[in-house]
Amino acid sequence: MDYDTQEKDNQTQNEAPMSATNGEEPQNEAPMSATNGEESQNEAPMSATKERTLDDKRGDIFKGILFIVISAFFYSLMSLFVRLAGDLPTFQKAFFRNVVAALFGAALLLKSGSFKWKKGSLPALLGRSIAGTVGILCNFYAIDHMNISDASILNKLAPFASIVFSIWVLGEKPSWKDLLLVGVAFAGALFVVKPSLDIFQSLPALVGVVGGLSAGLAYTFVRKLGTRGERTAVIVFFFSAFSCVSMLPMAILEYEPMTFAQVGFLLLAGLSAGGAQFAVTKAYTFAPAKEVSVYDYSQVLFAAVWGILFLSQFPDWWSLVGYVVIIGAAVIKYVWAKRK
Length: 340
What we know:
13 helices, mainly alpha, single chain, about 0% strand
């Protein structure tokens, strides 16, 4: 409702009695008071509408935060189920996880009635899919060979890596503050990686870092696809189908028979990943990334709890310092984004 227009109309209507009285001001004092009364009455609906708008915005932000935390919860469960699936080849685990995600994406596309992507989106879809596939393989390898909370925090380097990749993919120019936070986050990662002269001892953590970098590149391509107006269902299905096809040869070559429990855990991992993808998509429909993205780091807390309860994994002090540094950098990034 255009309240400014309404006020002008009220004022115009109330000016007519003054003109009709030919200057008899005493008789016009009542209409003048009525006009002021109407303006006061019109301020109330305007104020109420603003309050409702603010309440709606706060409600949407709360929903966005809720869904991003739900997404983090499901991703942490995915990590737990991948680890509980036992000693199986990484390609085999990742393949089963992505089959479920591909079915999830296909269902979304069937609901929309079209599997077509927008003209010109193919290069970005391929870039997202290649980077995402490498990211998942590295993340699963890290999950199998180190504490799941450590693997989760290394994967959360992705938002910082995305800042760097956005220079190349999106042509953006990050500020010196953004680049400083990238340096801080990767310095924090060193506390988790704990580099040593024994490359095999540090290998899982280094692979986890590569996974975080790859995820950051994948997210950057997702942003590019978003600017082109590409549908979320197309992005999810294309990536999941591409990763399944590309992993299938190695999954067949390295295939190991699975128990019913292992099959069940991998299916649960796939369902958890599908639930996480749905939740994160819903989160960003309610609120922009600058409002909710920092809450995604709750995944590390969930993963730490699952590691303690089900895997007897306890992060060491060096890793905890790394957690604080990386999450601290994310919080500062969040605060700066809110001020813009």
